[in-house]
Amino acid sequence: RAKAAGRNTFRFYSPEMNATAQPNLILETDLRKAVSREQLVLHYQPQIDLRTGQMVGAEALLRWSKPGVGLVSPAVFLPLAEESGLIVEIGAWVLGEACSQAMVWRERGLPPMRIAVNLSPVQFLRQDLVQLVADTLAKTGLEPDQLELELTESSLLDDIGRTTETLNRLKKLGVKVSVDDFGIGYSSLTYVKNFPVDRLKIDRSFISSLTTNSRDDAIVRAISGLAGSLGVKMIAEGVETPQQLEWLKAIGCHEAQGYLFSRPVPAKDFEDLLKAPGILTI
Ligand code: C2E
Ligand code: MG
Ligand code: MG
Ligand code: MG
């Protein structure tokens, strides 16, 4: 398009272009600063075993503590982190931080928690992912089966051969793998057919209208049946009401996570939950 505009038109300096280019530029610079100035934090949200009512895991959720702004949601900065490649550094930090935190709780004598870490497709497709996970486990001392990696469909289906190989190598390490936001993609059934995953994490959109929409009800029942037949665990995300909880228990869903139990909270507050596990008992 620059060519078509003619030789002597300085398109790259046009004010309109600056106006659109600038916000990204600023954000990326800010995000770089966030990484180097340690403005990233993890919050933790409990995962509850629906048979025992006990907390069995924690999902680590990233936040950017931006000076003068407050906590920025990953939904806002993840796309940029992925585009810019910064997600590689950020993701490695998240993995290390979550595993060390789990060990800190362990060393304080608190009940052991499985820790779930979200992986970006960009991370998952890197050659050095398995090595990074192995190194992080070695460095922190966390048992491999206490770490669960949450993947989305966008990672899993890019290349079935390569995905299978990476998942098998992760399995060999002993870490768990779950499919996040299960059910909303186009190919949910393709990956339960092809890939050795340990858990299906049913997307919040099915849970929110579970007790009012008979189709969502039918879909979640079907996923539950599928998980049962395949010998895969199932967790529901975004559980907000006692009615949803009762319904999930009734169909035999294994675990749940959502505001009904607790919002994602800073490590210090999560530690309080660990010290008083009765609070969340259902
Ligand atoms: P996700 O992995 O599906 O995480 C669940 C999201 O739902 C979280 O949003 C959580 O705060 C929110 N949530 C939990 N319970 C409820 C509930 O009962 N009701 C409602 N309405 N929402 C609930 P959050 O923390 O804003 O994270 C958004 C997404 O960002 C995550 O979705 C995940 O895909 C991504 N993400 C978060 N942390 C990381 C990370 O460290 N690395 C990568 N690559 N992605 C991350
Ligand atoms: Mg997740
Ligand atoms: Mg999810
Ligand atoms: Mg989700």
TrEMBL record:
Keywords: Phosphoprotein
Highest taxon, organism lineage: Bacteria
Domain EAL: 24-278
The protein's name: EAL domain-containing protein
Organism from which the protein derives: Microvirga arsenatis
Lineage of origin: Bacteria, Pseudomonadati, Pseudomonadota, Alphaproteobacteria, Hyphomicrobiales
